[in-house]
Amino acid sequence: MAGAPAKPLAKLPRERDRDGRRFCRVCDDYLPLAAFPAGQRRYTCRTLLAKPQKRLLSRLWMQCYKDRLVLGHERVELTQADLATLLEAAGAGEGGDRSASELVVLPKDPRKPVAADNAVLASREARWQMLARTRLQNNAPEPDA
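The structure corresponding to this sequence follows.
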């Protein structure tokens, strides 16, 4: 969709806790507060977080989402289903696999958003190097014209 204006991302409404229960967006139901992890308020219950494959996909996607700010992208065009396909193709599809937990997703071309056709699995060290390089480029003074 090159050239198409980016649509503003819809922000999910914040749900209030009701009578010691919180809404789980995955289960689509109100569950006891004990079903949610302690700490930062989340709307995903522990049941989902206990699934290693789903947890891995969520971690990889969230990392892409955070990296997009450093790379200067407005959105991540890669879905968790795309991530699962990418992991499966690399033979690292099981969430319990230690090698899969050491992987990150990077754009092949950092100038374009992460998408199914612009994603590659890499090591965490490669991610740190790419982000450091990008930060240096972004903070470099503009050449005099």
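The first strand starts at residue 21 and ends at 24.
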